[in-house]
Design goal:
Layout (H helix, E strand, L loop, with lengths): L23 H8 L15 H15 L5 E4 L5 E3 L2 E2 L6 H7 L7 E7 L2 E8 L9 H4 L5 H4 L5 H8 L2 E4 L3 H7 L4 E2 L5 H6 L3 E2 L1 H11 L4 H23 L1 H24 L2 E2 L4 E4 L21 E5 L1 E2 L8 E5 L7 H18 L10 H16 L7 H5 L30 H6 L7 E4 L2 E4 L13 E4 L2 E5 L4 E3 L8 H12 L2
Helix pairs in contact: 2-3, 10-11, 12-13
GO cellular component, one term: cytosol
Cofactor: Mn(2+)
EC number: 3.4.11.9
């Protein structure tokens, strides 16, 4: 085949020359002359010990069952571009690691389990994957530790993922977590086990001291993130809008943690009543409440979840303050129910009673408070359609695979971390409310740790009363 001689084009243009990875000379050249880079295993102090204890707790619950849990891999975004990788939460809880395509196998042995972690080995100089594999080649993704270093750092047996097939082939009906790829489940007759997912959710519901420390770090960085966002409100009002504030927090979260723990919500005025307003493509209106629902995810993947509603001008209007005061009263009533021995849903019912009573006093309910609160009523929930709290941990809505009785019917115990987040959401097109309420949305959300004798508000550095919120906002916007 002749080469192109078109002026201005290189001599190889238009040819079908072999790919570089198929060139023996190029491969040999790329294999030579590389020094040994410094590679540090990404391990947080205490994580290996915490993960080992988590495996022990799971082993006690699932004696006699083999278990397979996978880290997962980054999903396709578009074309050949991938989303950023975020490891499966159960895998992280059991291993302390975040290695993409990692698989943990717990083989039943006596009264416990033998744990082996299967990881992709680094693609280093000497093979074509070093420069030809965009997923693992170190020329693409940077140097990574070898498997022996992983094993030493985390105190667990580590084998190459290429050995996984032979291991799975010897298992008989192992329980597979939802993160295990479907082709592996089908090929080796693994059992997609609701019991496993439920067991992991139940166990993750009570945090140990190490986990609480990770959540404290995430929440502390979230509080400073609120500070950073509030200081940018004047620029947002001047034209940069909601997305500037969303980006401000997301940058803060990536600087002081792994990133945001969920899609950051910044809702101004008529966007504030939309529960998950993550588009953030509107202006920031100076005279309407600005709802900020934000959480930093720590490098260990434990996340905060905090909401405040602030006045961009520094001062709530009388109507806005009236709404904020009612939400605050519901928030305090809900938090007062968070303590050992109290049923989980008591905080929800306490807050809802305050909301229903307030709405009735305002003339918005055409039924009594008792009827509204009855199972056959619920009219007050037009303006608070969601629940007002959830467990918090590696997932923002943590422990979601637990059954109803365990999640919502059990009594609270020390070590539970949960949110309380009542709100009122009056949409701009809701013709059942007076015009002055339309487009007003207010939510207050704090993260609480159940202690031996009550609860600690981990996000308590941020004010929740209207006067305190106004003062806090003015100090940051310069008003």
């Amino acid at each position: 085949m002749s080469t192109s001689t078109t002026p201005g084009r290189p001599p190889y243009a238009g040819t079908r020359a072999p790919r570089l990875t198929e060139s023996a000379a190029f491969t040999a050249h790329m294999a030579r002359g590389w020094g040994a880079p410094d590679v540090v295993v990404p391990v947080t102090p205490g994580a290996p010990e915490a993960a080992a204890d988590h495996r022990r707790r799971l082993s006690e619950r699932l004696r006699g069952h083999d278990v397979v849990v996978a880290a997962g891999r980054a999903p396709l975004r578009n074309g050949d571009a991938m989303y950023g990788f975020r490891a499966d939460s159960d895998f992280v809880w059991l291993t302390g690691t975040q290695a993409e395509d990692g698989v943990l196998v717990l083989r039943a042995a006596g009264d416990g389990h033998d744990a082996t972690l299967y990881l992709p080995p680094p693609a280093r100089p000497g093979g074509s994957a070093f420069f030809g594999d965009a997923a693992y080649g170190e020329l693409w993704v940077g140097p990574s530790p070898d498997l022996a270093a992983w094993a030493e750092a985390f105190g667990i047996a580590v084998e190459p993922v290429s050995a996984l097939d032979a291991v799975l082939d010897r298992l008989d009906g192992a329980l597979a977590s939802p993160s295990v790829p479907g082709d592996l489940v089908r090929r080796y007759d693994l059992k997609p086990a609701e019991d496993l997912a439920r067991a992991l959710s139940d166990l993750r519901m009570v945090k140990d001291d190490w986990e609480v420390a990770q959540l404290r770090e995430a929440i502390d960085h979230t509080v400073t993130g609120f500070d950073a966002v509030a200081r940018e409100v004047p620029r947002a009002v001047d034209g940069l809008g909601e997305r500037w504030l969303q980006g401000t927090f997301d940058r803060h979260a990536r600087t002081y943690g792994n990133g945001p723990g969920y899609s950051t919500i910044v809702g101004s005025g008529p966007h504030a009543p939309t529960l998950h307003w993550v588009r953030c493509d509107g202006p920031v209106l100076p005279d309407l409440p600005l709802l900020l629902d934000m959480g930093v995810e720590a490098n260990t993947l434990y996340t905060a979840d905090v909401t405040r509603t602030i006045p961009p001008s520094g001062t709530f209007s009388p109507v806005q303050r009236q709404v904020h005061d009612l939400v605050e009263a519901a928030h305090r009533a809900g938090m007062a129910q968070v303590r050992p021995g109290v049923e989980y849903l008591d905080f929800h019912f306490a807050a809802m009673e305050v909301i229903a009573t307030g709405l009735h006093d305002w003339g918005l309910l055409d039924v009594s408070v008792d009827e509204a609160l009855s199972p056959g009523g619920q009219q007050h929930r037009r303006w608070l359609v969601c629940g007002i709290g959830h467990h918090l941990g590696l997932d923002v809505h943590d422990c979601a695979h637990s059954d109803y009785d365990t999640y919502q019917g059990a009594a609270l115990v020390p070590g539970v971390v949960m949110t309380v987040e009542p709100g009122l959401y009056f949409h701009a097109h809701d013709e059942t409310v007076p015009p002055e309420l339309r487009g007003v949305g207010v939510r207050l959300e704090d993260d609480l740790l159940v202690t031996a004798d009550g609860a600690e508000v981990l996000s308590g550095a941020l004010p929740i009363d209207a006067a305190g919120v106004e003062e806090w906002t003015k100090e940051r916007i310069g008003g």
